[in-house]
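Practice problem 4.
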């Protein structure tokens, strides 16, 4: 089991010497606040690492998203991108006007507030498992649930809600793609300097592995911070070196993890 940032006591003590840069890998538009918080958190180091942004996922809206005739009791937004691209679909926005809204995490809930001017509930453990543990998702027999998401991804929410007796509809409003060829070349060049990569999704991890042409069979000295046990298992299978694991994917959790690492805090 990989320890979280609050549990580790064997992390590299000279992280500030080893890493001269930290790479934020979230899609465009989702990194400025995180980058600024990291910069501020590490400012008192003698030689703070450079905070850079190399998105590992390119987000594209799906065209011709079908209209749904349902009026859901409850709506789950899987990500900030799901909120953003749903909000632009005027033919669908009215369907959730009277629905109770849920988000997988705090950042997604903030996007719901920004784009839809509504409040969304989110779990303390900010992932699908945490969401499913909420009381509102336990007694769902006969309820109509709508999941707004990107193409592909995990089916856990849908499967569990169905087993609990809910009626579930999913709408895909965007797709995840590899970065452009030009962007991939930049990522390849950056990797030569052996930075510390912040990885918060399986898609980002898989794309980094693919872009760098890495092998699964042996450690390739690509060092990362990950945000969940599920990601840790996948990263180890693909030969990545996990430097630390944050308590979750929220910005505050990532910043705290990086601070613990660079200041050698437990």
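Answer key:
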């Amino acid at each position: 089991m990989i320890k979280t940032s609050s549990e580790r006591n064997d992390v590299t003590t000279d992280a500030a010497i080893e890493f001269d840069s930290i790479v934020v890998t979230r899609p465009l538009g989702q990194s400025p606040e995180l980058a600024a918080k990291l910069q501020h958190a590490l400012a008192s180091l003698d030689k703070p690492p450079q905070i850079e942004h190399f998105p590992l996922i390119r987000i594209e809206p799906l065209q011709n998203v079908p209209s749904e005739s349902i009026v859901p009791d409850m709506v789950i937004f899987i990500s900030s991108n799901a909120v953003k691209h749903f909000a632009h679909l005027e033919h669908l926005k009215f369907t959730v006007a009277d629905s109770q809204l849920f988000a997988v995490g705090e950042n997604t809930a903030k996007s719901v507030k920004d784009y839809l001017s509504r409040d969304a509930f989110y779990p303390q453990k900010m992932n699908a498992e945490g969401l499913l543990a909420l009381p509102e998702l336990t007694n769902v027999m006969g309820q109509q649930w709508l999941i707004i998401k990107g193409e592909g991804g995990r089916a856990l929410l849908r499967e569990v809600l169905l087993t609990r007796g809910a009626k579930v509809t999913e709408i895909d409003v965007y797709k995840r793609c590899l970065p452009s060829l030009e962007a991939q070349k930049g990522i390849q060049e950056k990797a030569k300097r052996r930075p510390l990569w912040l990885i918060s999704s399986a898609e980002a991890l898989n794309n980094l592995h693919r872009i760098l042409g890495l092998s699964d069979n042996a450690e390739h000295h690509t060092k990362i911070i990950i945000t969940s046990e599920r990601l840790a298992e996948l990263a180890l299978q693909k030969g990545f070196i996990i430097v630390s694991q944050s308590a979750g994917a929220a910005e505050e959790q990532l910043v705290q993890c990086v601070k613990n690492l660079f200041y050698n805090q437990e």
